[in-house]
Amino acid sequence: MNSAKNSLRETVEHWLAADPANGLRITEFRNRRSKHECYVCAETLTAAGPVAMFFFRQQDGAWRIFPPSRERPAMRAA
């Protein structure tokens, strides 16, 4: 699966395998442009009960289930 080319909908459907009869809903959305932070929480209902997952927008535009890595200070010697 090439996640860099998948939309949020495709990524959510892949991970949650939501039943169309039960539906799927976004329960939380955060987009902090100043901190380059964007995520959503998607939820669906299964036979075992509700299932929710967070999806994070990466710097390359892909949606993944792990947060993007933070920029860390770096030093190089020439």
Task: Name the features.
1 helix, 78 residues, single chain, 12% helix
Number of helices: 1
Helicity level: 10-25%
Order of helices and strands: HEEEE
> What gross morphology would you assign?
elongated
Instruction: Write out the strand line-up for the largest beta sheet, numbering strands in chain order.
Output: 1-2-3-4
Q: Stretches where pLDDT falls below 50 for ≥5 residues?
A: none
Strand content: 35-45%
Given helix and strand content, the structural type is mainly beta
Number of strands: 4
Q: Between the first and last Cα atoms, what is the distance in angstroms? A: 39 Å
The main sheet comes to: 4 strands, antiparallel
Mean pLDDT: 82
User: What is the radius of gyration computed over CA atoms, rounded to a whole number of angstroms?
Assistant: 16 Å
The gist of it:
With 78 residues, this protein is mostly beta strands. It has one helix at 8-16, and strands at residues 24-32, 37-46, 49-57, 63-64.
Structure description:
The protein is mainly beta. The protein is 12% helix and 38% strand. The chain has a domain at 3-50. The chain is built from 1 helix and 4 strands, in the order αββββ. Strand 1 (24-32) and strand 2 (37-46) form a beta hairpin. The mean pLDDT is 82.
